[in-house]
Write a structure and sequence with these properties.
By secondary structure, this protein is mainly alpha-helical. The chain has one domain. The chain contains 5 helices and 4 strands, in the order βαββααααβ. The strands form 2 sheets. Strands 1-4 form a two-stranded antiparallel sheet. A two-stranded parallel ribbon has the order 2-3.
Length: 120
Amino acid sequence: MFGYEMIHVGQQQQLLKKQELTVSQILRTYGKQFSQIMGQYSDGHDGRCVLGVIMSYYGWDGVDKINAGKKLSTALNALDHIGIDKNMLIEMNDSGYAFDEIADHLDRASGISRYHFCQG
């Protein structure tokens, strides 16, 4: 799966509600902070893939491997909860779609953009 390491951590059902953004808003706003990369969540600096951006929304610094598992679990649970296929996001990212293009796709897809992530 394009070199992504899947980390399984217990489900986090409760998220503290600080700010709610749609997935497309996360990609458009948080994505501007990073260079887009392929094949890994982070390059350890300012590079992130689409899932790395979402993990960063949840507070991941792009380096801490222990914290990465928790943030990945949170991001994947949230994506699953609102019906967004993580594999589709990965494929779009690794096929060269920019964060804004992925966000546009999500906005066009059957109402997905109405669903919000809760930042915790």
